[in-house]
Amino acid sequence: MAELEAVGTTRFHRGRALRLTTLWAASMAVFLGVCAVSVEGRVLEVMAGALPGWTGLGLLSGRLFGWRQGWIVPALVLLLVGYWGVQDGTGGYPWWDFTRSPVVEQPISLGISLGLLAAGVMAYWMTPWRLRGLLRRS
What we know:
- This protein is an all-alpha fold and 138 residues long.
- It has helices at 2-6, 10-38, 41-65, 72-84, 108-125, 128-137.
- The protein starts with a helix and ends with a helix.
- 19% of the residues are buried.
- The model has no long low-confidence stretch (mean pLDDT 86).
């Protein structure tokens, strides 16, 4: 199947990207809708702010290790955040921990999350033939 996807047309890849984007948006809406019933607003805000970052990490991992191993980088980041992302004496979390701080308290966490999503989308867009084309031009 990987060989067939490698020779797929532009129309095939655009359709796949559209389907994945639609499924991602729908699943996030359902997930956050269900969570809105069971968790408080502050926790829901943190979850909604962190979801783009986790998606970007999954896309980066998929591009680096293959799409079936898209879980590797998010799992490593989860371990690192769990180990080093502890509260300090004031009750705050490190600035780079996009998974625990509400956007109101630490707006940079949303920026980090959106930056990770942008990096993941760029990695998804950077297919092998586009990369070869860019390398040939320079």
